[in-house]
Amino acid sequence: MAARLATLRHDVTLYERSSSTGGMSGSLTRDGFTFTTGPGVLTLPAVYRDLFLKTGAAIEDVVDLVPIESPTRESFAGTGTGGSRTVVDVPNASRSGVHEAFEAGFGQGAGDDWQRLLHRAGEIWGVTRKSFIETPLLANPAGRAEQLRSAGGRRDLRTTAPWRSLRSLGRGYLSDVRLRAHLERFAGEAGCDPRKAPATLAVLPYLEETFGVWWVRGGLHRMTEALHARCVQRKVKVRTETGVASIELTGGKVSGVLLEGGGRVDADIVITDVPAHTLRTDLLPASAPAPRPRRVPAPSSVLELHLALRGREADVPHRTYLFADDPAHEPIALFAGRPTPPADPTLCVLAPDDASLAPAGHSAWTVQVRVPRHGDLDWTAADVRDTYPATLLDLMAARGLDVRDRVLWSRLRTPADLEHDTAAPGGA
Ligand SMILES: Cc1cc2nc3c(=O)[nH]c(=O)nc-3n(C[C@H](O)[C@H](O)[C@H](O)COP(=O)(O)OP(=O)(O)OC[C@H]3O[C@@H](n4cnc5c(N)ncnc54)[C@H](O)[C@@H]3O)c2cc1C
Q: What's the gap in Å between 23 CA and the centre of ligand 1?
């Protein structure tokens, strides 16, 4: 956004309270191992291609963006005799390949069910893309409400079904519980409860299957570094370690920002990515004519366990989901139960096939788990911090991915760390 605005000849200053830009997308380097922190794959590469092209030079000139060749492996608790797990390798960006994988893994008809759901998701994408993504929202709140109400006709409303949850949509199309878990993982990754998340989230698997998942050689943080560099090239003034304490209004209009260390800067327009609630309660004066943000369910957070491993395994794909024994119950434990570290969470294991991330003959893996936010659960408590990594490694082993005797060292990044590093409330 900053680079685009600067290209349009706005005088842009970017204020970042921490020591580096990138927010939740960053990196951790130690002893020759590098871990991408934050998202483990990149989706919708067209957004980045367009951004780089329109702000100076093509994306190929700045990062090595490559499609992830390996399939996404999904492993589910066994339902048959002997309890062996069902493992499905879902190919990247291949409709027919995904159909085949689900038919083979979940039984005849599963691939057809999934295709019907994805067809609906494609229609939802057609509607939401037009109305919400490619049409600028009106600044005036009353006009905006009207714009949203009138977006699309009755047919579009039937397609998007804003009253329907993702879980309800899944149950309508998918008879296999593992296929439903596959769909609901996209809500989980967005921090949402699939019982309450809108059915429109079905666009996420649609986008992943249609446009694929991608990687940047050297780690996804290379993309944020490239974005930073592009901003500087476009003469955006980047001020790190400079938090914004509040936004100043004069006569009901933005006139500047007050900085945390003291000082005031003139501004005609302020654009911010802080959560709406934080903006309203912490940054804007109480008298600001901004609407109160609608109360939405608080999202869950995510925990990362970085593993510096001895050895390399040729057979482990970039992304493996080791699903909970009872995936349908997972959101109940996460959102409605007593906030404790989840005992039966779905694990996402990221094992990028990128030799630059670890010394020769070693691997840098990250395990991501959806967990309660910091605050609901005290993630700084020693008993949680000290015991949960072993719990996760045991769960991996029980689900067929045992690396316990290969761990050189590990580092846990909890929601408390995330909150500290990015100011996201609760690390969510
Ligand atoms: C482990 C993990 C996995 C994820 N996986 C995915 C995924 O697969 N797909 C996906 O789409 N998303 C994923 N996300 C979420 C994604 O990273 C975030 O949605 C994205 O980073 C949000 O970008 P943002 O710029 O809005 O906010 P942030 O990344 O949180 O950045 C906000 C920045 O603003 C700064 N800041 C805050 N307040 C102030 C202030 N007052 N003054 C100055 N600076 C301030 C913060 O320090 C921070 O650098 C994941 C996140 C994590 C942690």
A: 5
Q: Which domain holds residue 384?
A: 301-427
- Report residue 37: phi and psi, to 5°: -100, 145
pLDDT at 150 over 60: no
Task: Determine contact, residues 330/343, Cβ cutoff 8 Å.
Answer: no
Q: Is the CB of 273 under 6 A from ligand 1?
A: yes
Query: C-alpha distances in angstroms, 37 versus 29, 152, 339, 345?
Result: 10, 38, 24, 20
Mutate to test the pocket of ligand 1, among 24, 260, 321 (most ligand atoms within 8 A of CB): 24
- Asked if the structure places residue 296 within a domain, the reply is no
In contact, 231 and 238? CB cutoff 8 Å: yes
Over the stretch 244-262, which tens digit does the pLDDT of each residue have? 999 999 998 999 999 999 9
The residues with which 255 forms a beta bridge, in sequence order, are: none
> pLDDT of 151-188, one tens digit each?
557 778 888 888 999 999 999 999 999 999 999 999 99
Amino acid letter for position 11: D
**Where is the domain boundary, 289, 309, 327?**
289
Which tokens sit at 136? Answer: 């600028």
